[in-house]
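#onboarding

Welcome to the new folks! Below is a worked example of what a typical request in this channel looks like: someone posts a single protein sequence, and someone else replies with the predicted structure as tokens. Don't worry about understanding the tokens yet, we'll cover that in week two.

Example request:
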Amino acid sequence: MVNVDGRNTSIELLAPAKDRTCGETAVNAGADAVYMGAPRFGARRNAANSVADVAAMVEYAHRYQSRVYVTVNTVLLEPELEEAVALLGQLHEVGVDAAIVQDLGLLEVDLPPIPLIASTQTHAHNLEKVQFLEAAGFSRVILARELSVAEIAHIRAHTTIELEAFVHGALCVCYSGQCYLSHAVGGRSANRGECAQPCRKRYSLVDGRGKVHSSGHLLSVKDLNRIHRLGDLLDAGVTSFKIEGRLKDEAYVANTVTAYRRALDACLDARGEPRCSDRISYAFTPDLDVTFHRGYVEGFAHGEEKMAGLDAPKAMGVPVGVVLGREGNTVEVDAAEPLSPGDGLCFFATDGNLTGTCVQSVVGKTIVVNDAADMTPGTELHRNYSTEFHRAVKKGVQRRVPIRMRLDAVADGLLLTVEDSVGNRGTASWSGPFEAPRNREQARDRWKTQLEKTGATEFVCEEVELGHVETPFVPVAVMNDLRRRGLDALRQARLQSIATLTEGRRTETPCLPEVLDSTYNVTNSKSEQLHRRFGAKQIARGPEAGGPIDGSRVMISRYCLRRELGSCLLGPPGKSLPAELYLVAADGKEKLRLHFDCEACKMHVIRDR
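Example response:
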């Protein structure tokens, strides 16, 4: 990538890819890069892809000068290091542009020259941690989601490493890489790609005497949406704008990427900075409320806000109407939005639980659903699946690279020059002898017609210029061959000019504490070796490698239940809550103690057993 004063100036919209289909959709919708899972060692185990599929994704993305990053972002146990190294070698061979990793042991082994991105699982939550990751040799760091715009700007002012920030999608209630709750209660480690999401369960907040002060999905936070903060993040120095969602479907990818592509381009235009120049068309209007979300927050972008989705941990969609009455599964609805067969509806049943059903038919205000047992008059309905929107999305999004062609006369022949909008150029020539055309105008028209036929390629020809040339008569096959070779030459030139990540450089300046607890997630000898290089002398092994969970603390969160419930000890007077507080799971199987570190503005969740 282009660098100015050591800093990257190429802005990237980064999209998730559960598989090749989602990845190609993301590229078509305007993503500058996609990230997808490797066959193993990804933090989303259910989003793994074969090396062959990754290779096909690379080939497709590179046509549009988009990049492909692959996640190898779990901690690694000692026997797994060799396999991980071999896997990264395979990924390098198929042309992957970077690997996203968590285990710092990978910086101590012999890897091919593949750029490494520090996963959000590395807990890059402050300047000191980012400086360490830069010194360790990473090319880019994915910042903790909890960082404010001001904190990101502070990090930018004191580092030169590329900064990647999440702008949309699901939020973990805990700092990424610092959550051991799933591992502690069920043996499924988030740092191993197996999180069971116990944070999305229902809990009661109780005091030491067992009195209930609140109940609901107390640890389930809403989803991130920073589409209106892109300009602030640009100004703060963010290089890559990341959409979460490696388990999401194609409609989610198409919708979010299209929305953010338009918003980011508008910000870049306003600043006079380069933006996506490709021509993108789609058969739907992007609407972030339509596809999966749990309600939206901006996180800690500019301070505190209510973040919890206390009522439900699932996607409710948008309000569409109120039940007027029902008979069996036939329901009369005062609909604010038109409904269609196949739509998914959700609502809160009389027991307070979120439930759902599917629309079978629609006639005016009357709908027939699969199950209307809990649809009492006055029930508010939400649509969490829109048949019409998904139908429009399935028509696809299309991305074409605009090009110009020029045909000139050269010694003993013709020269075709093909150029894209950012200056990449390819040429092809054809030698004579040629016959003079019987009708010059017809000959020129035929040349233009044939040259601009780019067909099913990634290119769209916006202009054909016939320079100082007497357009000769040649068979159509000759014109087509000249065009094909010109496009191939341009394609190769574009492949050679794909922006690459800045090479990471290790400095090995001691910058770590001498004593590291288990939250540093050291699970193998190579990781321990690297941490010792940077000043650590006493290193606890991570829980996945058999070490104890530090202080039985299974979660560290910037999200705070006291603040959420209006009882912040540092804020204005509000709801009174006792000092001793616990979370009790709805099934009664877990009781978690809460500790509030008000000086650091963090909440700790502790499992005392």
